[in-house]
Amino acid sequence: MEDAVSMGKMRSIARQTALQVIVLGALATPQAARAGGNEAARKHYDRATELADDGQPEAAIVEFQRFYDLTHQFAVLYDIGQVYLSLAKPVEAVDAYQRYLADGGKRVPAARRAEVEKEIERQNARIATVRIRGLPQGAVVRLDGKEIAKAPITAPVRVGMGTHTIAASAEGYEPAKIEIELVGEDRHVVELVLAKHLVETPSRRLVAPMVGTPPHVSPVSPPLRAAPMAAEPAPALPPAVPSAPMAAAAVADLPASVGVPAELAPPMVPPVSSQPPPAGVKVAAPSVASPLPVTKPGRGLRMAGLVCGATAIASVGAGVFFGFETRAHSNSAQSAPVYNSAYAARGRLYEDLQWTAFGVGAGLAVTGALLYAIGAASSSAPAVALVPLPAGAGVSAEGTF
Q1: Residue where one domain finishes, among candidates 83, 104, 124
Q2: How many domains does the chain have?
Q3: For the chain, the helix, strand and coil percentages under 3-state DSSP, each to the nearest 5
Q4: What is the tens place of the pLDDT at every residue in 55-108?
Q5: Confidence (pTM)
Q6: What's the sign of the alpha-carbon dihedral 45, 50, 53, 54?
């Protein structure tokens, strides 16, 4: 803790010393440089020296630059380089010093030139270069939140030592950024890949079939009507078989003049005889009525429940697959020597697909369980079918209970 405090005090003392050097350098600037231009230019210069003396180097740089824009006096570029030096910004300091030497030319004293060239060499040892690749045309690149260029960037970007954030953005792409740590004279390559925006399409809605509606009939379609069938001629009946006279007591007691209605007449039961029928006469075999079909209520619901359950299992399997893909892309992005934002974008996509598949699977599982339970409950109701026996001798009941 004491070491950190002492380091902070040393940095503060070093900054104050650098600012005092700036003020002394400004006072040592030739009078023609300070008085050149007009009254507004002199005010900017005097205000810059006051701000530097008060410990406000950023504001002092602005005032020095205003003075230079009005007068184009090269001497003030040396002061700007000194201020950047106190702010530990080697790139800006080297730029100001080089402009000072270029604009001053032979007017720069030999001793001052040697001093500046030595300082430029010392600051270059604290500058790293970064090459930025993989960006689409026109992408905006920002260094520590400040826009520096637009893609394509052919020349390397000079950056001071320390930790920096490089971000890029472009229309129609997802933004990407990376944080890098650089040392002096480092040569670094950054691969920034911007993923394109994904176009989301609405998923198809699953419409549950209505109970009691055939699968090939729309629920809103008009009811089906059976077409009238053409009348067919009645089949020819076989010749009647002569039967024995009826021996019903009730009929025998009726008067001869009173006719017996057909619906009140007793059934004509042919006598059972062991003798074969006469030659040429065919006796029709007694018909046995086929039993009515036994319906199975709830079967369709149970089948729908099973289908939903199978689909839920498939959806959960898909979610597990997308989960493995998410982990694989995340591991690839972390272990890659060069940051690749495409891995991160694909990892987020697979993660979204994973949870979507799990959600759909859970919903289908609950729906399938409900449908199967409802179908099983409706199947418990007894279904009875009446089956008449041959010759009307009795009635049999069949059913599912």
Answers
A1: 124
A2: 3
A3: 45, 15, 40
A4: 999 999 999 999 999 999 999 999 999 999 999 999 999 999 999 999 999 999
A5: 0.44
A6: negative
What is the three-class DSSP state of 308? helix
Residues 107 and 140 occupy one common structural domain: no
- Tell me, yes or no, whether 30 and 104 share the same domain: yes
By the 8 A CB rule, do 195 and 173 touch? yes
d(CA 294, CA 344): 60
Residues 6+ positions from 209 with CB-CB distance below 8 Å: 215, 304
Tokens for 336, please give them: 């890659």
Cis peptide before 277 (omega within 30 of 0): no
315 found inside a domain: yes
Find the helix or strand (DSSP H, E) in which 127 lies.
strand 127-133
Q: Which amino acid appears at position 234 of this protein?
A: A
**What CA–CA distance (Å, rounded) separates 303 from 65?**
82
- For the ranges 19-23, 96-100, 330-334, 367-371, the lowest mean pLDDT is seen at 19-23
Longest dimension (CA), the chain: 162
Residues 93, 80: Cα–Cα separation, whole Å: 7
> Any idea what the CATH number is for the domain that residue 160 is in?
2.60.40
Q: Which of 169, 134, 167 is nearest to 152 (CA)?
A: 134
Q: Which two structure tokens, joined as six digits, stand for 71?
A: 């007068």
The whole domain housing 160 covers: 127-191
Q: How far apart are CA 29 and CA 26, in angstroms?
A: 5
- Give pLDDT tens digits for 200-211: 555 544 444 444
In a shared domain, residues 99 and 6: yes
Query: Are the C-beta atoms of residues 129 and 158 closer than 8 Å to each other?
Result: yes
Does 264 fall in a domain? no
Q: Which of 143, 34, 124 is nearest to 78 (CA)?
A: 34
Mean pLDDT of 336-340: 66
Residues 366, 317, single domain; the answer is: yes
